[in-house]
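New to this. Explain these tokens.
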Amino acid sequence: MAPAAQCPVIAPEWEDPKGVPISAILFGGRRATVVPLVNEAYDWEHGVFLGSIMGSETTAAATGQVGVVRRDPFAMLPFCGYNMADYWSHWLDIGQRKGAQLPKIFFVNWFRKDADGKFLWPGFGDNSRVLKWVFERVSGQTEAVETPIGLLPAAGAIDTEGLSLDDGQKAELLKVDVEGWRKEIPDIEDFYNRFGDRVPEALRHQLTALDDRLTAR
């Protein structure tokens, strides 16, 4: 381990008591299907919704079962010391603060697989290609396509030069699996129901809106 101060690109304000300006927040889970390589939330509330429903597919090492989606909101479920639904409310409250300059929220999934069970995205250092698109979205330098689950990169917006990806693989990485997302709805509802009436109404509205957008497709 090395001191953070040795990082050549660390924000100059990193020790400022007022905090460091944040332009983007990324959430991510390990999903072989359904979730695309990257998508951007429509707005803050939609981003909190995406964070609240994120999850990863279990491995044999962790649970003995493979491929079961385990919801882990904000990757914080093991660490949140109070009711998770109240945690969601606090995130939503941030968006209601007068004058708040809210970061864009993105969801990434490096683990999408093809029909043969092979990873589609090379990962590791090539993840910077996706981060480049995120930076360009923050600065308004690139386009996105509106879909039922959020904003996805327009065709050619992610630099894949030098990668061994054919057009079919590129399309699969950014595919919005409408039927797969429809199957997610009951599971998300069951997950929310574990928290009873403490679930913020805004998130239930977001779930209904997602269902409506998927049905419209």
Summary: The chain has a mean pLDDT of 93. The beta strands are 24-28, 38-40, 55-57, 69-71, 104-108, 144-147, 150-153. The first helix runs from residue 44 to 53.
